[in-house]
From TrEMBL:
Biological or metabolic pathway of the protein: Cofactor biosynthesis; coenzyme A biosynthesis; CoA from (R)-pantothenate: step 5/5
Protein name: Dephospho-CoA kinase
Gene Ontology molecular function: ATP binding; dephospho-CoA kinase activity
Source organism, top-level taxon: Bacteria
Length: 198
């Protein structure tokens, strides 16, 4: 894809490592446009969408709440430990998300800097959409603590979520910039300042 001299930062990391924290800072302090894969992925399965219809066809209308919205928890139960169904679902959603990113990039003025927040940047093979990759890292103990606190999880639930993802170390190995969020917010934001000025 033609990138038109844009600087496109692919911001990724593990669950609860601080992607949103970094994206909010880049939006507020640097006024950068932020494009968010999670928002597009939710939009993909809105009531009336062809993807939601495909999902309801495959799993039955019970996958929908009375309002017609997707019952995410039930879908999560189906795909958890079922790689084939997880793959099927991803083949529905990832191309939609990719298309939204491409559209958003095409609307940017020439020579823009923008941030793409993509939790599954590597897993969904979206690295070609960006010109540099930033990974937000935390040590595993901190990651567990923050997940347990934010999402009110047990230790076992937090561990299961972390272990279901590509290892954070592997993501760091593929990064252009690693932001270490193992200590204070201030320390994190200093690293962001350095990276954006690089
Ligand atoms: P997810 O993958 O679930 O979307 P995320 O990578 O976007 O998560 P955040 O939501 O930014 O991560 O951060 C996870 C939690 O950790 C939040 O509750 C956030 O307030 C907290 N947090 C982030 N950085 C720090 C820090 N340096 N010190 C303390 N708490 C932090």
């Amino acid at each position: 894809m033609a990138i038109n001299n844009h600087r496109l930062i692919g911001l990724t990391g593990g669950i609860g490592t601080g992607k949103t924290t970094v994206a909010n800072y880049l939006a507020n302090a640097y006024k950068l446009p932020i494009f968010d894969a999670d928002i597009y992925a939710r939009e993909a399965v809105q009531p009336g969408s062809s993807i939601l219809n495909n999902i309801a066809e495959r799993y039955g209308a019970d996958i929908l709440a009375a309002s017609g919205a997707l019952n995410r928890q039930q879908l999560g139960n189906i795909i958890f430990n079922n790689p084939q169904e997880k793959y099927w679902l991803e083949q529905q959603i990832h191309p939609y998300v990719r298309d939204r990113f491409v559209e958003a990039i095409e609307r940017l003025p020439l020579n823009s800097t923008a941030v793409l927040v993509v939790p599954l940047l590597f897993e969904a093979n979206m690295t070609d959409l960006v010109t540099e990759i930033w990974v937000v890292f935390v040590d595993e103990q901190q990651q567990l603590n923050r997940l347990i606190e934010r999402d009110e999880l047990t230790l076992a639930q937090a561990k299961a979520r972390i272990n279901s993802q590509m290892s954070l170390q592997e993501k760091c190995n593929k990064a252009d910039v690693v932001l270490d969020n193992s200590s204070t917010l201030e320390a994190l934001l200093k690293q962001v300042d350095a990276a954006i000025k690089a």
